[in-house]
Design brief:
By secondary structure, this protein is α+β, with helices and mostly antiparallel strands. Helix content is 51%, strand content 14%. It has four domains: 66 residues; 192 residues, no CATH class; 304 residues, no CATH class; 200 residues, no CATH class. Helix 1 packs parallel to helix 4, helix 6 packs across helix 15 and helix 13 runs parallel beside helix 16.
Length: 891
């Protein structure tokens, strides 16, 4: 018995959990020895003491064992890790495939999760961002939401009861920086005095705007963005309080914004402006003149009072809107107010697309995990004899679970490390190719959320797939496993491996269907004719100083400085070698900027107050249609005689002609805007896509630049060239400087670049989803190949017997391929059923493609079936070529 106790002690030191058995052995020895001592005549107490002395200090040994249990557990863990590393090192192919597969799945998931987190999950970078809402005017008749009239904003702010603050921004002012070398255009914004305090911004230097500076005549102060302060002024610490020469006027710098502040928005909010360099006070008159109820340049933000839900604030706004409809029926009869939480507003357009990509990359991870599960199951099947021997020698199921779990966690840890490195490299590369109009793109970076996400995925993968092999062998006794001698396939393992392959194929098919629909949609999108010429067209924006508009009153016949500048510049540009023609426009196609006017058609009933027809208008110069390639369908385009000294004219596009004149020819008809002057329609031109290739052309009208009743100081020049457009940029800059050296030129781009940028989001999601789909197919094919190879190796003797009794090689080939085809067919059927549910969710992302596109739903299964059969054919061919005698001797 003493020997048994000592053996148990040694086992405890080795890390085995036998303390209870040790207690029982010690107690039994003491009782037997004490009884023997009592028979020899010793008193009971003395007999017990003698028994404990004879035990030879085993109680002290037991106490020491208990003292080192923590150290023993640590030693056991270290031994498990060493054993796991040795076991993986003995099978480098298995370890490499498992780690790479897991790293690809985790890395891809972490990369896309980082994008989703930066755009959707991160709180907005403001104080209490959940209380910030955006306010918009809404047409009650059509539901169209748009920007806000200054006079309406004035009344909203005065009458609201639900908001702590309400502020507005006019995102259209530009400033020309003079007096420091070549003139530069700085993007500006005019904001109400409490704009920055609404967002909780504290200046990096200087102060915020004062309320008294937010009045006409007192607003010659500016706040600089941190980026403009650094890039334009070298971060001069003494700049606050100094004067700047902007737009030929003096402004005083009163503050510098912090480097971490930017106005989070979507591109359509500010007509494609993504940053602002200079901020000035909005300086609305109090009260604003009535004409400021008919123009709509403002975006409005508000901060809810604590405890006020947005539903209550919306009811408050509805009350204000009803009052304004009664007071100002001419402008506000059809106007309501809509409040939208800022976070929801910013990501509204991209939420579905990012959720789709996250779901897709999640499927890739599931496929990768299924592959690892198959690998571990196959490896566990090869280790059945090893496990059986360990159980026969006394190892418990818990001990085996701990060892397998350690091996799974080692694989997961290495995969996590490589996946994190993959994400750290992929995220910066991906952000360089993000669409320009993706909101919050600047906030995308690998952070603690992404790393926590990676760690959780890795831990879950290691635990689940580390224990799956043990779960599969739970009903197999050690004797049965030893008698099998390592041959045969456990039915449970075979079914589970088959189920994993079916799941992989189904998930791959869903991704392929989604990618196929996206690819077909994108292909149709880029084949849409934009309605204008894209090749050999150069565009550039000019910023004219305010003096070009000073002293001008429309209709007086006075010489216009803007017209003179444009004529002089076009004369110079036409002399540049390689330039075929040139013209000006205020709003470039696909440029993201628009403006609209209400109008009446001669001979038709006048609309009641507050009800009117509206259409976008586009000021252009003579020769614009010919330069950019918009066809003139009826009548004529504009020429040099269409100026302020001649009759007012207008050209309309085909959609406007169709909507308001039907089959009649509108040329010669007249229409007018808010003034008394009638304009004659001189031409009908082709439709051009201005809002995007995926948006149907809308009714539009074109006006001669010289007859526009409001002054456009940011014209875009359009050049049609016979050479590469970029080669004439230098000559264009010299021509502009030759007319006026104080006019900056920027935003230089070819029309091809503009068209390409307009489909950036569609290209991005299509490319990413297609990459994930191809990766999924590749991983699924590898998984199917691995399973079929394992099945072939396990059934080598069976194939030998079949061929020995008369089966042909073709019979064996068909048998193995039949198994692969069966798994693929079940996976494809399940995948089609899942795809039928999933495609409904991405219908809003498709262009001219039905979610249940027959060609895609028929072609994808054929493609996936071919890949699956190819993956199964290689091991099937190996099985068919096996020599029967060699197969019969196979062990």
């Amino acid at each position: 018995m003493i020997g048994r106790i000592r053996a148990l002690c040694r086992n405890v030191f080795r890390g085995e959990r036998v303390e209870q058995e040790l207690d029982e052995e010690i107690r039994g020895y003491v009782e037997l020895t004490a009884a023997e001592n009592m028979r020899r005549g010793l008193a009971p107490g003395d007999a017990m003491l003698a028994a404990r002395r004879d035990l030879g200090g085993m109680d002290q040994v037991k106490e020491r064992v208990r003292d080192v249990r923590t150290g023993a557990a640590a030693d056991t863990l270290i031994r498990d890790l060493r054993y796991a590393l040795r076991a993986l090192a003995q099978h480098p192919g298995f370890a490499t495939v498992a780690v790479v597969t897991l790293a690809l799945g985790i890395g891809a998931n972490t990369t896309i999760f980082t994008v989703v987190s930066g755009v959707l999950l991160k709180p907005l970078p403001y104080r209490e961002p959940d209380r910030i809402v955006t306010l918009w005017e809404r047409q009650l008749s059509s539901g169209i939401v748009g920007t806000v009239a200054p006079a309406n904003f004035y009344d909203w702010r005065a009458g609201s009861r639900s908001f702590d603050k309400m502020a507005a921004i006019d995102p259209y002012p530009d400033f020309i920086l003079n007096g420091s070398g070549e003139p530069r255009r700085l993007a500006g914004a005019a904001v109400s005095a409490d704009f920055f305090s609404l967002f909780g911004v504290r200046m990096a230097a200087g102060r915020d705007f004062l309320p008294e500076e937010d009045r006409p005549g007192h607003n010659q102060v500016v706040i600089l963005s941190y980026a403009a302060w650094m890039s334009e002024f070298g971060g001069r610490p003494d700049l606050v309080g100094k004067a700047l020469r902007l737009n030929d006027a003096n402004y005083t710098v009163v503050g510098i914004l912090p480097g971490n502040f930017w106005l989070v928005s979507k591109a359509s909010d500010f007509q494609s402006r993504t940053r602002f360099d200079i901020w000035t006070p909005l300086a609305l008159a109090s009260p604003p003149p009535e004409w400021q109820r008919g123009t709509h340049p403002l975006c409005v933000y508000a901060r809810l009072k604590p405890g006020i839900p947005i539903a209550r604030a919306q009811a408050d706004l509805d009350r204000i809107a009803a009052n304004l409809q009664t007071q100002y029926p001419a402008d506000d009869k059809d106007a309501g107010i809509t409040a939208v939480p800022l976070g929801r507003h910013v990501v509204g357009d991209v939420r579905t697309a990012l959720a789709t990509l996250m779901a897709a990359v999640g499927m890739v991870l599931l496929i990768a995990c299924a592959n690892i599960g198959n690998l571990l199951l196959s490896r566990a099947a090869g280790r059945r004899k090893e496990m059986a021997l360990r159980v026969a020698l006394g190892a418990s199921r818990g001990r085996l679970a701990r060892q397998l779990l350690t091996e799974g966690m080692v694989l997961a840890a290495v995969g996590c490390l490589l996946g994190s490195l993959f994400a750290l490299a992929a995220v910066p590369a991906l952000t360089r190719h993000l669409p320009a109009d993706l909101p919050r793109a600047a906030e995308i970076a690998v952070d603690w959320r992404a790393l926590l996400f990676t760690s959780l995925i890795s831990a879950a993968t290691g635990i689940v797939f580390g224990l799956v092999p043990l779960w599969q062998t739970r009903r197999v006794s050690a004797g049965d496993a030893l008698r099998q001698g390592g041959r045969g396939i456990a039915a449970g393992q075979s079914r589970l491996r088959g189920a994993l392959i079916v799941g992989q194929v189904a998930a791959a098919l869903v991704l392929l269907v989604g990618a196929g629909l996206m690819a077909k949609s994108f292909w149709k999108l880029i084949r849409v004719s934009p309605g204008f010429r894209t090749g050999h067209i150069l565009t550039a924006r000019l910023s004219l100083p305010p003096r070009y508009a000073n002293g001008y009153a429309f209709g007086t016949g006075k010489h216009r400085l803007i017209s003179a500048f444009e004529r002089d510049l076009l004369d110079r540009v036409h002399g540049i070698p390689g330039v075929a023609s040139a013209a000006f426009t205020a709003y470039l196609p696909l440029g993201g900027t628009d403006n609209a006017w209400a109008f009446n058609i001669e001979g038709r009933p006048v609309k009641p107050p507050g009800v009117y027809d509206m259409t976008n208008y586009r000021p252009v110069s003579a020769g614009y249609f010919e330069t950019i390639g918009i066809p003139v369908l009826h009548g004529r385009g504009f020429d040099a005689s269409d100026d302020e000294d001649h009759a007012l004219v207008v050209a309309i596009n085909q959609s406007m002609a169709r909507m308001f004149w039907g089959r009649q020819n509108p040329v010669g008809g007249r229409l007018r805007f808010s003034g008394p002057e009638w304009r004659t329609i001189v031409g009908v031109v082709g439709d051009a896509h201005h809002k995007g290739l995926d948006a149907a052309p809308t009714p539009e009208m074109y006006l001669p630049y010289a007859q526009v009743p409001n002054v456009e100081l940011r014209p875009t020049i359009v050049l049609r060239t016979a050479v590469e457009p970029a080669s004439v940029v230098s000559a264009l800059r010299k021509a502009v400087a030759g007319v006026d050296p104080n006019v900056p030129i920027d935003e230089i781009a070819s029309m091809k670049e503009l068209v390409s940028g307009s489909v950036g989001q569609a290209r991005f999601r299509t490319a990413v989803l297609a990459a994930f789909a191809l990766l999924a197919v590749f991983v699924a094919a590898i998984g199917l190949y691995g399973v079929m190879s394992y099945l072939v190796s396990q059934r080598t003797q069976e194939f030998g017997i079949r061929m020995a009794v008369g089966a042909s090689r073709g019979d064996v080939l068909r048998l193995v391929l039949g198994q692969a085809a069966k798994l693929a067919a079940i996976g494809i059927a399940l995948g089609l059923a899942a795809a039928a549910l999933v495609v409904r969710l991405i219908a809003s992302l498709l262009f001219n493609v039905a979610p249940f596109d027959p060609a895609t739903l028929a072609g994808v299964p054929v493609l996936l079936a071919a890949v699956a059969l190819l993956a199964g054919y290689i091991p099937a061919r190996r099985a068919a070529r096996a020599d029967p005698m060699t197969a019969l001797r196979y062990e």
